[in-house]
Please model this.
Amino acid sequence: MIMFHRRKFLQASLLSSASLLVKRTMGAVPEVEEGKTDQPIVISTWDFGQAANMEAWKILSRGGDVLDAVEAGVKVPEADADNHTVGLGGYPDRDGKVTLDACIMDGHLNCGSVAFLENIVHPISVAKLVMEKTPHVMLVGEGALQFALANGFKKENLLTPESEKAWKEWLKTSKYSPVINIENQKKDPNQLPGGPLNHDTIGMLAIDATGKMGGACTTSGAAWKMRGRVGDSPIIGAGLYVDGDAGAATSSGLGEEVIRTCGSHAVVELMRSGAKPEEACRKVVERIVKRDVERAKGLQVGFLALDKKGRFGAYAIHKGFTYSVKNAGIEKVFQAGSYFNS
Ligand code: GLY
Model:
């Protein structure tokens, strides 16, 4: 019986893949033609989202649940000590402590979140348990840690020697410059001691084979942030929002700007009103930029969106924001469109 269902599912995937029509628009943002969606699908922020997508795909392609898939997907960068903006090995706050933020949500508005969580490698799994096991949406700090430990998570040191070295380098000047993930600032490696590449949050959005939509978002937040600072990533409506009647959105970049605009919620509401994913992302980016154009020249925010038909798109303040897509017909990193192009 199980074999039969699996065969039917694989056949459906192949058929759907064959019928996929992809057209290119400006900025090389693809748009799946209306009515020709190819599901399941998983998309995530940045090129490092590729490895995360592949893990999520293992679950989606065998007919698994969307939340299991996005949890498994974002656990990849959370466990990657070489990724300095998510989980283990994340750059610490100005006091040298790695503090993590994460949330998860499905298309029926079920959601869970943790913020300012220390010493736990997989905050996304704690967020999922907050959703499943508590009457609450969000746990923070010491309470979130207690909850994690009570549920079998192990306390671990997340500050790797490499991140500690970068932090000590930063301490020499202690200059806090909240510049996040402007990829084309690679030319100024001193922007963040420890590495010229300053990628940011992973946000992942998916639709499973049953049509259920979900998303996850996880980060160690801004490097050298003030102790206690929480960004957009664990805030439902800011770093992530999913509503199966409209679509899903997530963000990467300077969280304060995303919180101000309830960014991901705004993107989803624009899609509900008829905007396509890239257009919805662009409109929210424009709101952020127009608040203070000069200031926006020095900061990065990118949104990624997936509508209920499986169409996807992204847009950022600055060039360089990438996103990864995986379904039966596409396995690719795309460059998002941007407000400033130089
Ligand atoms: N977007 C991640 C943060 O600002 O913390």
